Amino acid sequence: xxxxxxxxxxxxxxxxxxxxxxxxxxxxxxxxxxxxxxxxxxxxxxxxxxxxxxxxxxxxxxxxxxxxxxxxxxxxxxxxxxxxxxxxxxxxxxxxxxxxxxxxxxxxxxxxxxxxxxxxxxxxxxxxxxxxxxxxxxxxxxxxxxxxxxxxxxxxxxxxxxxxxxxxxxxxxxxxxxxxxxxxxxxxxxxxxxxxxxxxxxxxxxxxxxxxxxxxxxxxxxxxxxxxxxxxxxxxxxxxxxxxxxxxxxxxx
Length: 253
Hints:
This protein is an alpha/beta fold. Helices cover 39% and strands 23% of the residues. Strands 7-6-5-8-9-10 form a six-stranded parallel β-sheet. α3 (97-114) packs parallel to α9 (225-233) and α7 (175-188) packs parallel to α8.
């Protein structure tokens, strides 16, 4: 199947059963309607993938004391953060740009705490300048592009495929140009796409609002910086949770 790996695939059955296909294998997780227990059986080879090992899912679903982990949630091992074109000569024109940069910085810091892959791009850096300093020092050198979509940097996504990433959280500018075109291209390529609505921006409110509606209607999931951070974190009581909590308690600009 061409393109990036799609997310967990749930095939709901009329008999109140469902199947979960495993990566690069012929295993499927099947629930008997009569017993409400789960077992593994074989299906033809499929390229659908999931970031969670099928044995751990089987164990969790057979444990009546816990709910299964929703495939709608991002997980740190299967997600990448994509920072789109947050550059010096662009950012000053963006509405509430200080808050956009602050939220992108918190996402980058949280991603590094939790082991989430972080990638980024720059739009025509020779003319639009480098990434803004607070983010550049965290991101390092980034590939440049002339296309508005980050699809013009295919090497970024090849690297993510090699690391079995299936989900991408997108942030950056502008919402209705580079961000939107990137999101639509990623969806067409089979990725599961999230958009941090408080970490993207446009010059004008109408462009921003219409971009959100269009991306969501195309299949992207809208979220926020803080929601994403705690979704990646998954649980309290860990050293990582303490660092994420500090990011969440910061006062914004």
